[in-house]
Specification:
It contains ten helices and six strands, in the order βαααααβαβααβαββα. By secondary structure, it is α/β, with parallel strands linked by helices.
């Protein structure tokens, strides 16, 4: 298939969200002396991650706002240990959200792959991340220069995997469905979402998942494999 347009997810597809977030929260944990409340950083982070995943699912379903997602995910770990200080959680939240996008770790081979592909294809970002963070992340890691346009769920208030955001991305970039490809690490958001509108997909299968509901167009475990595919 002669592709012209490549749509990349950002977090944990190109920008190493999990590593950068963990680094940030360890810094915040020490800065705000959270050892007062938690047995260890791992104790805190496990509570945060569990509630964060739940809140993102609720956000995708329209059950909470972006503001509620942010406030609740930082307050929850404190509440879980009987230290529900909303002012402390708000200070932590503000500091963490200002720090995370300054981090610059990328997924393995991301820069090499983008350098190669940007000379041959139109590259775009299609992300559920928040506008105030995603652009900063891309500048901090110096990958913004590879992309012709960044399309975010914030732009229309609809998240992947809903079909509307894929159609919006195609329209906003003047791309055709039959020569476009979605590349991402999230099965539900990126792969099932793209397949739902008839777009070909590359599943960046970081976890080695095998229980796939259908066969994606392509599957990789390392971004470098894109050099052989494209």
């Amino acid at each position: 298939m002669p592709y012209k347009n490549l749509f990349f997810d950002l977090d944990d597809t190109l920008w190493a969200f999990s590593a950068n977030a963990r680094d940030t929260y360890e810094e915040m944990y020490r800065k705000y002396d959270y050892d007062r409340f938690f047995e260890s950083f791992e104790h805190y982070y496990s509570l945060y991650q569990r509630r964060n995943l739940e809140l993102w699912a609720e956000y995708a379903d329209g059950k909470v706002t972006k503001e509620e997602l942010n406030s609740q995910r930082y307050l929850y770990p404190l509440e879980a240990v009987g230290a529900g200080d909303s002012a402390l959680a708000e200070a932590y939240e503000k500091d963490a959200l200002a720090t995370i996008p300054t981090k610059s770790k990328l997924m393995p081979h991301a820069r090499e792959v983008l350098e190669y592909l940007s000379a041959k294809y139109n590259l775009y970002i299609l992300s559920n991340g928040f506008k105030e963070l995603q652009f900063h992340k891309m500048r901090s890691s110096d990958i913004d220069k590879y992309f012709r346009k960044v399309v975010l769920s914030d732009d229309i208030g609809i998240l992947k995997p809903w079909s509307e955001i894929f159609h919006f991305a195609l329209s906003a970039t003047q791309s055709e469905l039959n020569d476009s490809l979605m590349i991402g690490d999230s099965w539900e958001n990126d792969i099932a979402g793209a397949a739902g509108v008839g777009m070909h997909q590359v599943f960046y299968n970081l976890s080695g998942r095998t229980d796939l509901p259908f066969t994606p167009t392509y599957q990789i475990t390392d971004l470098k494999e894109l050099l052989d595919l494209l």
